[in-house]
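Page 47, continued from p. 46.
Same chain as before, 126 aa.
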Amino acid sequence: MILRLRSGQTLVVLLVFIAMAMAVVSAAVAVVISNTQSGSRYELGQTALGLGESGVEEALLMLLRNPNYAGGTLTTVDGTATISVSGSDPKTIVSSAAVGEIRRKIQVVASYTAGILTVQTWREIE
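Result:
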């Protein structure tokens, strides 16, 4: 049995296949865009974490030079870290880093005794 298509049926079948192909391609493009954005946010988060840790290291260095250091700002090409130092012994250092819209915060507790600065805890906080 030979199947014969009437005039216009081939066009309808072709349009259905094109519509299905467009749906598949659109879904693939959406997945690629989502993954790219996710990867970019992860990279910015890692940069912000490194900047926050740099802020803490800056504070530790400044505390060795001046035990009364109270904080400041560390600005780099990537972003800014705001450093605050509170307490007397132990001292609590908080470095809040911002890279674009991403923010990371590091908290370090260190004691300063007889000219020796000892880090007790180092962690990321909310």
